[in-house]
Design brief:
The structure holds two protein chains of two kinds. Chain A is mainly α. Chain A is built from 13 helices and four strands. In chain A, helix 1 crosses helix 6 and helix 2 packs across helix 10. Chain A is globular and about 60 Å long.
């Protein structure tokens, strides 16, 4: 049983950032803007979040510091995503191009700034955020060890973001408008919705979430930030498509990928896998191969937003 | 009339690229000033001088940096022409590099004169195989090629690491073994001419690849079909083009180009080895910027590859003033970003010069085809593709 708990706890570390960032992608893409810049926005969010922790960890610690860092990460992600919004909404530029530019700028900026200020590109931080067991909740049988032991507060933030996103996109007026702009912006415009404003909102929400996702990825898995989020932004894109742009499916996809990733990185801690004569690399490949196979069988009826990637031009028919 | 528009097109796209480059360099200058105002000017001059800093050795260094990114740039640009975003150049590059080194280390029975050639061919085949995967999945199962290429990047990286450890592993240095002398690309006197060992005939192979791709795209029916597919998939299907075949072949050729790039870099005899690390090959991603800056045109890609390599050398040199070379990546990303502004600029000029073109209603059902990427000849292909459909309709 302890193995199951171990896997569940490990899965959270991988699945939660993927979930947050895939939802980030969802907000942008369902408003009609392809956001390939998730990776770059994650890096910017993690850079400012970890930088904030690095500076203030002498005076603060624990959950207060982490929550403030989460806010900083979200804010910086939002500001950075404005560049993408401006290029793809106002200038009607190709959205892959500005996304690629942002992806390239972010790590270079993180390395450059870190090295100019402190000489090395790794930003160290002290992990005072680890929760061994949540009081009371951690003692619940089964559910306690799975959710409330060996955890980080980012896990709960991620789950809450998941719930709110589901509600916002499916059950609010704003969500309906957002989806309309991604499916048929002309129709949305004809009933008085400001397509540009809604799309800006989509991209900015996407920036906030991706920034938070970057921090949520770095904090549980490392003790320094090395100007990279290990391709998680791209993986989140895969999760988004795998999840067919729908919140509940994204949730499932993120956890599917998280479990696979856990087997890959922690198989030596899982007794029945450790004994098998399979190379380390094979385990690492499994999440990607599994995703490929699943996508192959699920992509025939893609439910991508119809107006995705097409700049909205008020004048066009 | 048409030639007149073309002249304007070329001129405006040149102007807008120039504007983007100036903007990128300005941002670079500002960053230099903000981080250390004292040495900003000399460092900026050093970036501009780039490969011209160190005489012929500097030029050789530019060429050395340019070879892999021109190849991955060609790969990305070629796929762009068919409306595909090949973000998987990194994996194809690494597969090619591995197979080239493997053949270079193990296949000692191959005649020495053609050993390097065989290794390069092996690299192309490996890249082609890796590239065709996403192509096949896209054509037959409608799987988004961006995602499959990303997955293939990671699978390729782990596969290469695993294969290195099992076959050609130098466990002391955690890297590949050195290749046999016969597998190193011939120098053909280039090393004496440039007074450095980093250079070989690799650049001529790159030029050959640029010419071949140019001919395929501009002068053959096959290339025309690929471009038609990229401009309007529906229209090209009506015109009787086998779009599945076009998608697969386009990705296959793109993969072969990246693979060849990997082979060229690691067989250049410069003491470069694949390290066994969980790290994607950065050359694949540089290829995206090269292709974007070169507007997916083979000759544009060749020039933009040289330009970016030139800046990279400059970025390497400014470490003399305690600056960090990553500033170059920032400059390049700003240049690419300003390409978006440049597109607007170009459209304004075009509107001023030509009468407004009547845009057919295909805006609604066309897949997000890169606008800027396809460059000057896009407009003509678009029109012709539509003409084809119109003809069909007329026949009916």
């Amino acid at each position: 049983m302890s193995t199951v708990y171990f896997i569940a706890q490990q899965t959270m570390y991988f699945a939660i950032p993927l979930l947050i960032v895939a939802l980030a992608g969802m907000f942008s893409e369902r408003s009609g803007i392809v956001n390939i810049a998730l990776e770059g926005i994650m890096i910017v969010g993690a850079f400012f979040g970890i930088g904030f922790i690095n500076i203030y960890q002498k005076t603060m610690s624990g959950q207060t510091l982490l929550i403030l860092a989460v806010l900083i990460a979200g804010l910086s992600g939002a500001l950075f995503s404005l560049f993408h919004a401006f290029a793809s909404i106002n200038l009607k530029a190709d959205q892959t191009i500005s996304g690629t530019a942002l992806n390239m700028f972010a790590p270079a900026f993180a390395i450059y700034t870190a090295r100019m200020i402190q000489g090395v590109q790794q930003i160290q931080f002290i992990d005072t955020f680890y929760i061994r067991s949540v009081p009371i909740l951690g003692d619940i049988p089964v559910l306690g060890p799975i959710l409330f032991k060996n955890a980080y507060i980012t896990t709960y933030i991620g789950l809450i973001i998941g719930l709110i996103s589901w509600f916002v996109i499916n059950h609010t007026r704003f969500g309906l408008r957002l989806r309309a702009c991604g499916e048929h912006p002309q129709a949305a415009d004809s009933v008085g919705i400001n397509v540009y404003r809604i799309r800006y909102a989509g991209v900015i929400i996407s920036g906030v979430l991706a920034g938070i996702g970057g921090l949520a990825f770095v904090v549980p898995t490392s003790t320094n930030f090395n100007a990279t989020v290990a391709g998680y932004g791209f993986l989140a894109l895969a999760v988004l498509i795998f999840g067919q742009w729908r919140t509940n499916k994204i949730f499932a996809a993120a956890f599917f990928f998280g479990v696979m990733k856990t087997f890959a990185s922690a198989y030596s801690g899982i007794p029945f896998l450790k004994g098998l004569p399979i190379s380390n690399e094979v385990y690492k490949m499994i999440p990607y191969i599994a995703t490929l196979i699943v996508l192959t069988f699920s992509s025939k009826n893609s439910q991508a937003p119809r107006a995705e990637g097409i700049p909205y031009d008020k004048g066009s028919r | 009339m048409k030639t007149k528009i073309f002249q304007n097109e070329g001129f405006t796209s040149f102007l807008s690229s120039l504007a983007a480059i100036v903007a990128g360099l300005l941002v670079g200058l500002i960053i230099l000033f903000v981080s250390n105002s004292k040495d900003a000017i000399p460092a900026f001059v050093m970036i501009l001088k780039g490969g011209f800093e160190d005489g012929s050795r500097g030029l050789a260094q530019v060429i050395y940096f340019a070879i892999p990114i021109i190849m991955t740039g060609l790969s990305v640009g070629f796929a762009f022409k068919t409306g595909l975003f090949n973000i998987g150049a990194s994996g194809q590059f690494k597969m090619g590099a591995f197979v080239a080194i493997y053949i270079g280390v193990k296949w000692s029975s191959v005649p020495a004169e053609i050993h390097w050639l065989v290794a390069l061919l092996g690299a192309m085949v490996a890249g082609a195989v890796w590239g065709s995967g996403p192509g096949i999945l896209k054509a037959f199962f409608n799987v988004n090629e961006v995602i499959t290429s990303i997955m293939m990047n990671y699978i390729g990286m782990y596969l290469v690491n695993m294969s290195i450890v099992k076959t050609i592993y130098d466990s002391l240095k955690n890297q590949t073994k050195p290749v046999l002398k016969s597998a190193v690309l011939p120098k053909a006197g280039m090393d004496k001419l440039f007074n450095t060992s980093n250079i070989s005939i690799g650049i001529f192979i790159v030029i050959l690849a640029v010419i071949v791709i140019y001919i395929i795209l501009q002068k053959t029916t096959f290339g025309y079909e690929l471009k038609a597919c990229g401009s309007n998939r529906e229209a090209s299907r009506y015109a009787g083009i086998n779009e599945k075949r076009s998608i697969i072949l386009s990705m296959l050729i793109a993969g072969a180009l990246s693979g060849l790039g990997g082979g060229l870099l690691y067989l250049s005899g410069s003491g470069k080895y694949i390290h066994v690390l969980d790290e994607l090959a950065p050359e694949g991603f540089s290829g995206i910027s090269v292709a974007l800056l070169g507007m997916s045109h083979p000759i544009g890609i060749f020039l933009s590859g040289l330009f970016i390599a030139h800046l990279e050398v400059g970025g390497f040199n400014i470490q003399l003033y305690n600056y960090v070379p990553e500033i170059i990546d920032m400059i390049i990303s700003v240049i690419i970003y300003c390409g978006a502004f440049a597109l607007l600029f170009k459209q304004i000029i075009k509107k001023l010069i030509t009468k407004p073109v009547i845009d057919t209603d295909n805006k609604d059902n066309v897949e997000p085809v890169p606008l800027l990427i396809s460059g000057a000849d896009k407009v003509s292909v678009h029109d012709e593709a539509n003409d084809v459909t119109r003809q069909e309709e007329d026949e009916k």
